[in-house]
């Protein structure tokens, strides 16, 4: 062996692994943040429902709040909203 | 006064004695006493008499004294004796006394010794006044004096024309008049203090003298004119640099002031001054350069102040100086500034500029200075900004220029507010005279300062420099351009660990935050946060896994500059690590996708060139270089196409990488045929004869650095971002106004947008918004837009 790897310093970038580009509620990009936040990233995360629709966490929480006592539904497919468990 | 009141007391006593007696006795004393006037013996004897008027030893009233004493004891007797006799003056009393006084007055006028003693003369006046003969005495004296003054002044008529001689004559005449009048006033003091004070429309003896002097001077206009013109010619001589008799001028001017004729001189003097300086001002401006002209003006002003101090009346000061300012400065303010300002600025002559500022400030010349100042800054600054050859030094040049101007402003212009505003405005104009480039260079300059491997300057110094750079930044309009470049450089510093000090980095971020608000620095702060998070992830990872060879920075895409995808077939050794980490990361953070930025990665390799100790080296290389080098583990010689097929890199990137390994100073690979550039048919072998004194060798990758292309990309991405800002601004305006004409919308947008835009750009964005159905054109008038809700 002439050359061996001693150390490796790598750089990776992460993005949300969502199928859509934009949040179905606020229509803002997942790469960005919801309208109430200023800084994208960990502070404004994305969540998935059992129906596998992604939203900004802040957006869907607000949406669920508006639903009141009714059954909470996904705004995209009208199925009952359940956070996808990790 | 004491003496006078005592005299009155004695007088009352005298009225108590048989009347006629005292007067007679006194007369005898006055006429008979023959001692010379200035004999001290006589006057002291007299004094004694006065003091001891009551004592028996008095020569004047030896026999009456005891009677008085008795009378006081028996007042009734005194009343009876009063009735008996009436006081009476000799007929010739007034004439005689006046004659005597007149003789002395004449003697005074002729400047001859006065025959009688002053005491005696004083007494004579006193007596006349006591007997109510004051008015007569006054008018007689007035006539006499007036006659004398008249003849004196007439003697001035027809004197030689030579100014100095004539003025000296006048001065002597005045001096004489003053001396004589003061002597006369002393003699007639009693008159001055009783009759004059008691009568309302009579002026004091001194004033009477002045009055008649003035009257006769007025009736001899030739003399008066000659005095004035004589003085003016003396002053002219002095202004031309000759020595003149200043005390002569002072005395004559005091004379005019006392005679209340000063204003006639003043008017002539000011007119003369004005024309003199008008002439001299334009002459000197022709002959002298500006600094010398200013020196000359300063000297002139000083001289005139001196003149006021020495002989002119203080009330002349204001009009005189204002004439001077008007003729020497105000009339030429523009010329002075036009001709001199720029040169002085260029040569950085603080003293001269200070003089110019102080002088022009006297005549409201500040606006002239301000214009020239700002024109100069713009001209010089734009030259610096437009200079393509200087490149990065432009920033340093600007900083030096700014520092120089600040120094001037403080030292020469007394930190004048208006001028410092002008400085700011001018800098804003000049730095934005060229689009984008200044912003880019300022960002680069900051990068240079913050990067490690410093140039031996202390932390404070570098902080000071950054502070000053930020002032330039403040003037920038294209702050987004700066941000883009700054971000790119910051990313490089952070990822390649090239930052000199994290504290300095944070300090500058917080300064930018102060300057532009947190939205400007959010992403920059996010970058620092990513660095911290990466550190945490690595700690967690190394706890869960055995490999310590790996360190990864995981970046949040939105914060960092966009990196183009860089395809690379990773060597197996690395790929395993990468996959292991990716699995670990995604298990921690769900819903994420990790993209590897190969262009930013680097490796340390252990290379064995020869089996002995000297043949083992540690190489610090980029991931690209590592990928290429690792290929040589399997084969001795590889052709370009073989390498290209194995690594799957971008062709251009591969050539650069090979060049860095085989053609630079440090040759890890041998290339055949030899040459600087990598061609398609080249083949490479591992250089087993590689020698180096160092154990750790950093192989510089041939710059991935600022190619023109990269810069253009950054600039372009800035423009892309600007489009969104323009869109947002248009929508904001239209949402508020609902409907707006094209021109109004454009002008509104110019107000809002902080970076330079052109109307065609805006038009394009409006078109695009119409397409996307944010807006529509009004059906009736196509130049009006309507907002679509």
TrEMBL record, chain A:
<comment type="pathway">
    <text>Protein modification; protein ubiquitination.</text>
</comment>
<dbReference type="GO" id="GO:0008270">
    <property type="term" value="F:zinc ion binding"/>
</dbReference>
<keyword id="KW-0479">Metal-binding</keyword>
<dbReference type="GO" id="GO:0051301">
    <property type="term" value="P:cell division"/>
</dbReference>
<feature type="domain" description="RING-type">
    <location>
        <begin position="34"/>
        <end position="78"/>
    </location>
</feature>
<dbReference type="Pfam" id="PF12861">
    <property type="entry name" value="zf-ANAPC11"/>
</dbReference>
<dbReference type="InterPro" id="IPR051031">
    <property type="entry name" value="RING-box_E3_Ubiquitin_Ligase"/>
</dbReference>
<dbReference type="InterPro" id="IPR001841">
    <property type="entry name" value="Znf_RING"/>
</dbReference>
<keyword id="KW-0833">Ubl conjugation pathway</keyword>
<keyword id="KW-0498">Mitosis</keyword>
<protein>
    <recommendedName>
        <fullName>Anaphase-promoting complex subunit 11</fullName>
    </recommendedName>
</protein>
<dbReference type="GO" id="GO:0097602">
    <property type="term" value="F:cullin family protein binding"/>
</dbReference>
<keyword id="KW-0863">Zinc-finger</keyword>
<dbReference type="InterPro" id="IPR013083">
    <property type="entry name" value="Znf_RING/FYVE/PHD"/>
</dbReference>
<keyword id="KW-0131">Cell cycle</keyword>
<dbReference type="GO" id="GO:0005680">
    <property type="term" value="C:anaphase-promoting complex"/>
</dbReference>
<dbReference type="GO" id="GO:0061630">
    <property type="term" value="F:ubiquitin protein ligase activity"/>
</dbReference>
<comment type="similarity">
    <text>Belongs to the RING-box family.</text>
</comment>
<dbReference type="GO" id="GO:0031145">
    <property type="term" value="P:anaphase-promoting complex-dependent catabolic process"/>
</dbReference>
<keyword id="KW-0132">Cell division</keyword>
<keyword id="KW-0862">Zinc</keyword>
<dbReference type="InterPro" id="IPR024991">
    <property type="entry name" value="RING-H2_APC11"/>
</dbReference>
Automatic annotation (TrEMBL), chain B:
<keyword id="KW-0833">Ubl conjugation pathway</keyword>
<dbReference type="InterPro" id="IPR001373">
    <property type="entry name" value="Cullin_N"/>
</dbReference>
<dbReference type="InterPro" id="IPR036388">
    <property type="entry name" value="WH-like_DNA-bd_sf"/>
</dbReference>
<dbReference type="GO" id="GO:0005634">
    <property type="term" value="C:nucleus"/>
</dbReference>
<dbReference type="GO" id="GO:0031461">
    <property type="term" value="C:cullin-RING ubiquitin ligase complex"/>
</dbReference>
<dbReference type="InterPro" id="IPR016157">
    <property type="entry name" value="Cullin_CS"/>
</dbReference>
<feature type="domain" description="Cullin family profile">
    <location>
        <begin position="437"/>
        <end position="662"/>
    </location>
</feature>
<dbReference type="InterPro" id="IPR036390">
    <property type="entry name" value="WH_DNA-bd_sf"/>
</dbReference>
<dbReference type="InterPro" id="IPR019559">
    <property type="entry name" value="Cullin_neddylation_domain"/>
</dbReference>
<dbReference type="GO" id="GO:0031625">
    <property type="term" value="F:ubiquitin protein ligase binding"/>
</dbReference>
<dbReference type="InterPro" id="IPR059120">
    <property type="entry name" value="Cullin-like_AB"/>
</dbReference>
<dbReference type="GO" id="GO:0006511">
    <property type="term" value="P:ubiquitin-dependent protein catabolic process"/>
</dbReference>
<keyword id="KW-1017">Isopeptide bond</keyword>
<feature type="compositionally biased region" description="Polar residues">
    <location>
        <begin position="29"/>
        <end position="44"/>
    </location>
</feature>
<protein>
    <recommendedName>
        <fullName>Cullin-4</fullName>
    </recommendedName>
</protein>
<comment type="pathway">
    <text>Protein modification; protein ubiquitination.</text>
</comment>
<dbReference type="Pfam" id="PF00888">
    <property type="entry name" value="Cullin"/>
</dbReference>
<dbReference type="Pfam" id="PF26557">
    <property type="entry name" value="Cullin_AB"/>
</dbReference>
<feature type="compositionally biased region" description="Polar residues">
    <location>
        <begin position="57"/>
        <end position="66"/>
    </location>
</feature>
<feature type="region of interest" description="Disordered">
    <location>
        <begin position="1"/>
        <end position="69"/>
    </location>
</feature>
<dbReference type="InterPro" id="IPR045093">
    <property type="entry name" value="Cullin"/>
</dbReference>
<comment type="similarity">
    <text>Belongs to the cullin family.</text>
</comment>
């Amino acid at each position: 062996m002439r050359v061996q790897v001693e150390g490796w310093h790598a750089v990776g970038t992460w993005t949300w692994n969502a199928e859509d580009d934009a949040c179905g509620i606020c229509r803002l990009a997942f790469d960005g943040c919801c309208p109430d936040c200023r800084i994208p990233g960990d502070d404004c995360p994305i969540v998935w429902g059992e129906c596998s629709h992604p939203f900004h966490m802040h957006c869907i929480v607000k949406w669920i709040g508006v639903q009141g006592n009714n059954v909470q539904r996904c705004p995209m497919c009208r199925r009952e909203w359940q956070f996808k468990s990790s | 006064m004491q003496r006078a009141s005592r005299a009155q007391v004695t007088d009352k006593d005298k009225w108590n004695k048989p009347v006629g007696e005292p007067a007679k006795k006194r007369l005898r004393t006055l006429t008979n006493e023959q001692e010379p006037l200035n004999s001290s013996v006589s006057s002291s004897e007299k004094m004694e008499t006065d003091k001891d008027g009551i004592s028996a030893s008095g020569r004047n009233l030896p026999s009456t004294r005891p009677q008085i004493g008795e009378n006081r004891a028996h007042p009734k007797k005194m009343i009876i004796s009063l009735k008996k006799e009436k006081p009476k003056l000799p007929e010739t009393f007034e004439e005689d006394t006046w004659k005597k006084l007149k003789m002395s007055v004449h003697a005074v006028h002729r400047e001859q010794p006065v025959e009688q003693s002053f005491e005696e003369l004083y007494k004579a006046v006193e007596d006349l006044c006591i007997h109510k003969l004051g008015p007569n005495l006054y008018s007689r004296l007035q006539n006499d004096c007036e006659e004398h003054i008249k003849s004196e002044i007439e003697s001035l008529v027809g004197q030689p024309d030579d100014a100095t001689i004539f003025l000296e004559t006048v001065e002597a005449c005045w001096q004489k008049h003053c001396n004589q009048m003061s002597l006369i006033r002393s003699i007639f003091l009693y008159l001055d203090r009783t009759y004059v004070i008691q009568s309302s429309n009579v002026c004091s003896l001194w004033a009477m003298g002045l009055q008649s002097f003035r009257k006769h001077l007025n009736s001899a206009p030739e003399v008066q004119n000659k005095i004035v013109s004589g003085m003016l010619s003396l002053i002219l001589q002095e202004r031309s640099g000759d020595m003149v008799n200043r005390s002569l001028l002072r005395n004559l001017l005091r004379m005019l002031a006392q005679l209340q004729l000063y204003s006639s001189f003043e008017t002539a003097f000011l007119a003369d001054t004005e024309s003199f300086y008008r002439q001299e001002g334009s002459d000197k401006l022709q002959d002298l350069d500006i600094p010398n002209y200013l020196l000359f003006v300063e000297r002139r002003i000083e001289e005139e102040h001196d003149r006021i101090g020495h002989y002119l009346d203080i009330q002349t000061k204001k009009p005189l100086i204002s004439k001077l300012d008007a003729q020497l400065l105000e009339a030429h303010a523009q010329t002075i500034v036009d001709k001199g300002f720029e040169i002085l600025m260029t040569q950085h002559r603080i003293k001269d500029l200070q003089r110019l500022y102080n002088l022009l400030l006297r005549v409201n010349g500040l606006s002239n200075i301000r214009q020239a100042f700002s024109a100069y800054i713009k001209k010089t600054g734009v030259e610096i900004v437009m200079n393509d050859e200087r490149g990065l030094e432009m920033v340093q040049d600007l900083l030096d220029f700014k520092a120089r101007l600040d120094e001037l402003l403080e030292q020469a212009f007394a930190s004048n507010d208006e001028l410092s505003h002008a400085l700011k405005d001018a800098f804003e104009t000049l730095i934005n005279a060229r689009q984008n480039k200044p912003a880019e260079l300022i960002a680069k300059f900051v990068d240079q300062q913050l990067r490690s491997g410093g140039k031996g300057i202390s932390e404070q110094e570098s902080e000071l420099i950054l502070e000053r750079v930020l002032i330039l930044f403040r003037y920038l309009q294209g702050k987004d351009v700066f941000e883009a470049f700054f971000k790119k450089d910051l990313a490089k510093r952070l990822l390649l660990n090239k930052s000199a000090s994290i504290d300095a980095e944070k300090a500058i971020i917080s300064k930018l935050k102060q300057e532009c608000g947190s939205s400007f620095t959010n992403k920059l702060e996010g970058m620092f946060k990513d660095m911290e998070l990466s550190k945490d992830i690595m700690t967690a990872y190394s706890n869960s896994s055995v490999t310590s060879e790996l360190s990864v920075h995981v970046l949040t895409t939105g914060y960092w500059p966009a990196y183009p995808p860089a395809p690379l077939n990773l060597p197996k050794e690395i790929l395993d690590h990468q996959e292991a980490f990716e699995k670990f990361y995604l298990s921690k953070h769900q819903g994420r996708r990790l993209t590897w930025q190969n262009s930013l990665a680097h490796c340390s390799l252990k290379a064995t060139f020869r089996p002995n100790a000297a043949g083992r080296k540690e190489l610090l290389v980029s991931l690209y270089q590592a990928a290429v080098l690792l290929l040589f583990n399997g084969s001795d010689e590889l052709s370009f196409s073989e390498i290209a097929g194995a690594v799957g890199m971008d062709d251009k990137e591969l050539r650069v990488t090979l060049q860095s390994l085989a053609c630079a100073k440090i040759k890890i690979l041998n290339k055949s045929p030899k040459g600087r550039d990598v061609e398609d048919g080249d083949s490479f072998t591992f250089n087993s004869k590689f020698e180096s004194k160092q154990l750790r060798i950093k192989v510089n990758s041939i710059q991935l650095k600022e190619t023109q292309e990269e810069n253009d990309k950054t600039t372009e991405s800035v423009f892309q971002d600007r489009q969104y800002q323009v869109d947002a601004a248009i929508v904001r305006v239209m949402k508020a106004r609902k409907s707006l004409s094209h021109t109004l919308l454009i002008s509104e947008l110019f107000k809002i947008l902080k970076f330079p835009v052109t109307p065609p750009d805006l038009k394009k964005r409006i078109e695009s918004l119409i397409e996307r159905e944010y807006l529509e054109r009004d059906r009736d008038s196509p130049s009006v837009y309507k907002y679509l809700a």
